[in-house]
Amino acid sequence: MSKKIGIVGSGIVGQTLANGFVKHGYDVMIATNTASKREELKSKTNGKAKIGSFEEAANFGEVVVLATKGSAAEAALKAAGMANLAGKTVIDTTNPIADAPPLNGVLQYFTSQNESLMERLQTLAPEARFVKSFSCIGNAFMVNPDFNGVKPTMFICGNHEGAKSDVKTILDQFGFDVADMGAVEAARAIEPLCILWCIPGFLSNNWTHAFRLLKR
Length: 216
Ligand SMILES: NC(=O)c1ccc[n+]([C@@H]2O[C@H](COP(=O)([O-])OP(=O)(O)OC[C@H]3O[C@@H](n4cnc5c(N)ncnc54)[C@H](OP(=O)(O)O)[C@@H]3O)[C@@H](O)[C@H]2O)c1
Description:
By secondary structure, the chain is of the alpha/beta class. It has 9 helices and 8 strands.
């Protein structure tokens, strides 16, 4: 399993996953393209992660995590550099949230139901091995969440089996049950789970839940 993780994105998701990967013994570089955020990132990761640009983190990582604002994801990939992503597992945490406000607690997306952001990203960077993951749970529960011994389900999808195997190993370490929903098109179903997850938050300020797929 690759041990060098490059995180493209400096928000709370990038920071949370950076600290999670450090905790699990990975060598981590987290990236911002805004110079004034570098010092803050250093302290948010307790000096344990390297700090770089999007391009430097994509080059550093054997596995790359994309954790930018959804509407900036395509620009972020271009800034990261296609050659730095080719042949690598790219964990896509992003959701295509539009700038327009939620309607009765329902987030608005800039994609339609018959497309997904990850399909756009896979088309833009065809040699990258995208795996949707961490998109359907709040950042507070991304690393070894405690739900009284019950593991939440992380829904994943992607075209490359080896990349999904990398992500399953990581998700096992991070305390998740994994549900592999198939190829990239399944992101059309996984990305909207974020809309569902956020509704109790917007309507009743309840942000402390997670999805679990029951099977028999
Ligand atoms: N927050 C959550 O709990 C949560 C849960 C699941 C999934 N997600 C998804 O995870 C992703 C990251 O979320 P977040 O809350 O951590 O942070 P965010 O505020 O959505 O994104 C911050 C990152 O986006 C980059 N960015 C913003 N505008 C940009 C632009 N115009 N061009 C290039 N880069 C730009 C920033 O770059 P700089 O570093 O240069 O400022 C920064 O790295 C989102 O897609 C979100 O939907 C979030």
